[in-house]
Amino acid sequence: MAVDPTGKDLKRLMDEDPGGPVVMLNLLRFAPGGQDSYMEYTRRTAPFLKKYGGELLYAGQGSTALVAEEGQAWDAVLVVRYPSREAFSRMVADPEYQKVTELRTKALTEAVLQATVPWGKG
């Protein structure tokens, strides 16, 4: 299962840019013992969020899945706002940020990272 965006993914993100801020939905499934690694990743990436104008709007543990097929429940959900897709792209391309991404990669077995567009904008 994919957990990290590829260059092709980032190109598509930019090609489909409607402009303005972007809110990224993160759905996470942890590897055994991966939550600690992910928490370290979030601690070490906080300065990058600030540097590129990002803001963590919400982070929480998955709980009761009311409407979901078996296997669709997630361990954690994060919602992060960036001033633009360009800011997000610059952050993930930052060489210093890249040094920390292995913490995220090893923490997860599956992830969804989806850009959202405000209704009426896309």
TrEMBL record:
It comes from the Bacteria. Residues 35-110 form the DUF1330 domain. InterPro entries: Dimeric_a/b-barrel (IPR011008), DUF1330 (IPR010753). This is Uncharacterized protein (DUF1330 family). It comes from Thermomonospora cellulosilytica.
